[in-house]
Design a protein that fits this description.
single chain, alpha/beta, 8 helices, Rossmann fold, Dihydrodipicolinate Reductase, domain 2, five-stranded mixed beta sheet
Length: 264
Amino acid sequence: MIKVLVIGACGKMGREVVKAVVKQDNMQLVGAVDVVNEGLDIGSIVLNKELNVKIQSDLQSVINEVKPDVAIDFTQPSVIFNNAKILLNSNVRPVIGTTGLSDAQISELKKISEEKNISALIAPNFTIGAVLMMMFAKKAAQYFDNAEIIELHHNQKKDAPSGTAVKTAQLMSEVKDSFTVNNCAETELVKGSRGGSSYSDIHIHSIRMPGYIASQEVLFGSAGQIMTIRHDSMDRECYMSGVVLAVNHVFNNSGFVYGLDNIL
């Protein structure tokens, strides 16, 4: 039985994670961390039934008390890095779905993971379709010299661009050095109108608007043709199959993984 701790348990994603963990025959929810609803049973909030798991706000105290095997973190970009270090230094395997980590922070977490021989998985997106979109984009990048990314999220998402967009650009950059071949010299009349220039000169445009959950388009162009690869998340439940896959992976395997595509 895999003992699971959920961090950010009262958030929209955290609630779905709690539901998913409870449904698994090989997992036991042993802890819930959040800065709201402290002292209440997470089951009464998420499932309208008691689970005998009280919400607590101090991560280290919960770890010491319940000794989880795996912790799933869907919190805030401002706290995720510190949370991950606490987990790794406490011999708890982190599964991280919060985006906003810098390349330097990811490298440091990888170093700690390898030094302590504690498995860890960071995924910018846990939706199988989105992961396939990234893999298809990397394949298409072999055949197009021009590409841009548009990502669209709800207006409560705090980081931009999304981790999925960054990961997509990283994968595409492994194929070639630039995706702005033969573009003319540009002048932005409104600053930022061309988006942010990322890996291999791939421009990323971030949309924040109520009504969206998470969507992304990768556009490829060449003379006389445009190809678009798009993925849309309609509800947060679609992330859970990837989360469950990640928990089982870090529990049964060693090593540091960045991106769900590496375990599919």
